[in-house]
Amino acid sequence: MPSSAVGNNRVYQDQDHENEVDDVAFLTGDREHQQAAANRAATYEKPIIASCTPKQAIIVLIVVIASSFLISIIIAFARPIGCQYPEFIPPPLPKGYRLRKPSANYLTTTGEAYPWKDIRLPKFIRPLKYRIQIRPNLTTRALKGQMGITFYVTEETNFIILHSRNLTINEYLLRDVRGKELTIRRSHECIELQQIYLETRGSLFPYQNYTLGIRFDGNLTESLEGVYMSKYTNSKNRTRFLAVTHFEPTYARAAFPCFDEPHLKAKFKISIIRHRDHFALSNMPLEKTEDVGFFLERGLLQDHFQETVQMSTYLVAFVVCDFSKITNKTSRGVSVSVYAPPDQITQASFALDVATKVMDFYEDFFGVPYPLPKLDLVAVPDFGAGAMENWGLVTYREAAILVDPEQTSTKSQQYVAIVIAHELAHQWFGNLVTMDWWNELWLNEGFASFLEYKAVNSIIGNWRMMDQFILEKTQTALALDELSTSHPVSVSVDDPSEIESIFDAISYNKGASILYMLEGVLGEEIFKQGLTNYLETNKYLNTVSDNFWECLSIAARNSSNDVHVKTIMDTWTQQMGFPLIYISRDEKIVHVKQEMFPSIFRNSNDPERPNSTWKVPVSFVTSIDPTREFHLWLNGSSVDFEVPDSVVWFKMNSKQSGFYRVMYEESLWAQLTDILLKNHTSLSAADRASLLDDAFTLNRVGILNVSTPLLMLKYLEKERDHVPWATALRHLNYLQQILSLRKAKENLVCFIQKLITPVYNELGWKLRTKHVEKLLQEEILSAAVKIGMVPAISQATKLFQQWRGAKTPISPDLREIVYSTGIRYGDKSDWDTTWKKLQESKISSEKRLLLKALGSAMDPWLIQRYLEFTLDQNKIRSQDIRTVVDSVAQNSPGNLLTWRFVKLNWNKLLNVEGGIHSIGPIVNAATSRMATNLELSEVEAFFSKADVGHGHRLLDQSLETIRNNIFWLEKSEDLLGNWIKSNTMC
Ligand SMILES: [Zn+2]
After folding, report:
1. Facing residues of 157 across strands?
2. By C-alpha distance, which of 65, 24, 17 is closest to 289?
3. Disulfide-capable partner of 580 in 96, 380, 597, 900 (CB 3.0 to 4.6 Å)?
4. Residues spanned by the domain of 40
5. Sign for the pseudo-dihedral over CA of 945, 948, 952, 953
6. Position 466 in a domain
7. How many separate domains does the chain show?
8. Does a structural domain hold residue 19?
9. DSSP annotation string for 145-208
10. How far is the CA of 503 from the centre of ligand 1 (A)?
11. What local confidence, expressed as pLDDT, does residue 470 receive?
12. Predicted TM-score of the model (pTM)
């Protein structure tokens, strides 16, 4: 943070002096205890601290903080000149979206009308600094804290508003910069808005600092949000507890009252009181520890952490635990540590190695050094998301960070590397430069989801991550964005629960895909330069997408590549959906035309699905040199280009790097199919995958006859690459699911068996050494078992029985298949033994596999019992509910039971899973293979009565999926069955 900044014609200087106050006496809560503490303290010559009353304590705190800010008047919104806009201008609302009208009916906790009608805080408040002392009590589950917030206002006011959620405020004290107390005339809390309104007797004047002291109480929860408790069992079989925070998007306010909006950045000086059996971690390194046992309880210590840089509330974090750690240093000397329960610390080496290398990669790629002195990564036994990018203190669920080289599969190791790289990308993109408001979340998440692949690709080249990128990001995002119930990546959100609804595949995967496409247009060098410029000029500040586009445009201009990035990218971020590119050839001339990709149930009058166009960077390769890419712009509805006569065939959307689909005229499909069948390696693996993905999808929405993708599939007998196989199997798995009770299923299963037999025979069960070969083997063996290939099932069940008897350990890459097959074809005793092994396992990746495998049971009683376990947190941790339900829903008998279970336990699931956004994916898993009108009306009837809150989009997406399934069956089921019968002897 620069020591001076210019803004609004004033020059302000931060001259904050460190001046700590050890005013912790009141944190024990009861006066008797305070008196005892005071007496003890008097004996030990520390009377100043302990003899003060609670009110005095808070006054001391505030006076000191206020005086320390005597000259300091930082204006956070002063911005250096560069590629940015002077002021935040909200982007126009995407078409079809309305801003929620403020309700006039917000009430206070005492039932009066709440004076502020907006879910957003007043624009005139600017926090500067928080001093927070907090004690998470792991015995009583109480949370106690006191704090001083220094802030200023930009206009005269007699009220301020801040956020608070489930906290009891015991005392407020407001002082001006000279230490003079300002009377708070009234205070109100509004539960619905999660706000506190404080009205002062006199005015607060612009650009003067004030300090608000607050004492508060709350509780640690088990909801995996705010400050919560987690636990693990140590080697002595004792349960050990830890306190963890998770604040994104709006849970910092559940830990301490604050101005909880991402643009209200401030510095944080955090102190944590904890028992001496534990230690505390926070965003910054420890400054000092002091014994506070005299004043509080024996054995209590207080850790003071260095003051943070300017940052958003949602990135504040702390952990109180007794973990072990391993440490390394980046090449620039930043300390990187991984923390895990002592028994599991040996599984942290892979993460430490990846994190250290990824930090070096990002410092080089971004051209901006990591701004903090340390980075900690913590494996948390109970964690709702995959991980959280808290600045300097990244938290992960165990399976997303711990790797046992002997026991963790290749796929899981890759997942760990990806999650680490994702969170570390946020340390710059998100933490250093932050979105102004949550409607720009996609830029944070899209960017991290793109960079995670580039980073891992760079540090482990032979994993071929960029081919896998299309599989995991582009294809999944296209599949969701074709629904009429999708949404634009830039979407208006206000309410906290609405904010949570946009942490979805559109923000993450479509965001990542369109950035990948843009990098292709600009070239990596320009992209990097624009990014460095963006981070440099906006560091510690907040931005909107336009700031980023502007920096990229400048970088392009400096390289004589005049691309107006905003004009292009607005077409991809402000409207939902994506283009379908029609291609036809007239001798030398190729006609290119775009239309919005049609969703089956789109209502043409629907304002949310305007008939739009995109600025499409069209790429293609030709038969002359399939490794050479050509590019052209499709800016309007159509464009033509010329190819030499010698071009026999061409394939559009090279390597599926563009976020669109391609529909060729019939003869061109035939040519491309021919290439696949006769000489498939003349196209890259990504191009082969992209042809399959487009052909299947176009058939699904009724544009392409099913015979085209089916004929194409025949080339798979020769395919030995992971990405095309994974793409094909994803589509075939979908068809198997919706045909599971239909007559065409038999033909399809026979056809798939024929396709995979050659590659199954070649790969077999022998252990592979190459990374991508291992991934392919896992795909093929898993498919072989799923479609009932007898040799595959026998081998898997044989290995399962060997494992069950604890005789032979199974190779990590075969475990998922072996465990799930063993359970699927096993009995209750197999299930119970596996359950017992799950309880005993200390390997998080192993636990995850076992949790999934147990959902493969075919016995309805076992399935039902397993589903019911999810309602008992002693059996299934709440972080794992989704894994369990998802795996049960994947198998045929389990699917029906899952839907029944969801309906019967709707309210309980809403509670344990933390709301509709968490159970949306469960609903989707339970309904995604439904394909009859009867099922559709049953689901519709249930949702019409259930309380779905802001989750209507997720549920609408489930309903649309069922309608699409019905549509496909009516249109293509018979054609598919007949084609397979006539062309494959199945
Ligand atoms: Zn993220």
Report:
1. 204
2. 24
3. 597
4. 1-48+104-322
5. negative
6. yes
7. 3
8. yes
9. EEEEEEEEESS-EEEEEEE-SS-EEEEEEEEETTS-EE-EEEEEEETTTTEEEEEEEEEEPBT-
10. 9
11. 96
12. 0.88
C-alpha 412/C-alpha 774 separation (Å) is 12
Same domain, 539 and 487: yes
Q: Kindly give the distance from the C-alpha atom of residue 204 to the centroid of ligand 1, in angstroms, as a whole number.
A: 38
* Ligand 1 centroid to residue 238 C-alpha, Å: 34
For the stretch 358-410, pLDDT in tens is 999 999 999 999 999 999 999 999 888 889 999 999 999 999 999 998 999 99
Q: Is the dihedral of CA 898, 901, 905, 906 positive or negative?
A: positive
Task: Name the token pair of 526.
Answer: 């320009």
* CA 476 to centroid of ligand 1, rounded, Å: 17
User: Do 557 and 475 share a structural domain?
Assistant: yes
With H, G, I as helix, E, B as strand and everything else as coil, classify residue 269. Answer: strand
**In this predicted structure, what is the pLDDT of residue 907?**
82
CATH code assigned at 390: 3.30.2010.30
**pLDDT at residue number 602:** 55
Is the same domain home to 113 and 173? Answer: yes
Percent of the chain with pLDDT over 90: 73
**pLDDT of 609 over the 60 cut:** no
Spatial separation of the C-alpha atoms in residues 118 and 195, rounded to whole Å: 10
Catalytic residues: 423
Query: What is the end-to-end Cα distance of the chain in Å, rounded?
Result: 69
Q: 447 CA distance to ligand 1 centroid (A)?
A: 8
CATH number at residue 554: 1.10.390.10
Q: Do 229 and 278 belong together in one domain?
A: yes
Q: Which of 255, 290, 322 is the last residue of a domain?
A: 322
Per DSSP, the residues of 927-974 read HTT--SHHHHHHHHHHHHHS--GGGHHHHHHHHHHHHHHHHHHHHHHH
> End of a domain among 546, 573, 600?
573
| Residue 417 forms part of a structural domain | no
List of E strands, 818-864: none
For residue 386, report the distance from its CA to the centre of ligand 1, in Å: 9
Three-state DSSP state, 695: helix
* Same domain membership, residue 255 and residue 111: yes
Are residues 26 and 127 part of one domain? yes
Location of structure tokens 């979206």? 97
CATH number for position 286: 2.60.40.1730
Q: Which residues, in sequence order, are bridge partners of residue 592? A: 583, 639
Pure H helices in 265-383: 349-366
Contact 315, 431 (CB under 8 A): yes
Co-location of 137 and 193 in the same domain: yes
Q: Are residues 289 and 262 in the same domain?
A: yes
Residue 725 within any structural domain of the chain: no
Count CB neighbours of 860 within 10 A. Answer: 12
**Mean pLDDT (whole number) for 753-777:** 95
Write down the pLDDT at residue 721.
96
- Return the amino acid letter for 691: L
Q: What is the CA radius of gyration of the chain?
A: 30
- Choice among 19-28, 527-536, 683-692, 696-705 with the minimum mean pLDDT: 19-28
Helix (H) or strand (E) holding 774: helix 771-786
DSSP 47-81: HHHHSS-HHHHHHHHHHHHHHHTSS----TT---S
Q: Mean per-residue pLDDT for 882-896?
A: 89
CB neighbour list of residue 821: distance below 8 Å, 6 or more residues apart: 785, 792, 793, 796, 797, 800, 856
Average pLDDT over residues 413-417: 96
**What is the pLDDT at residue 386?**
86
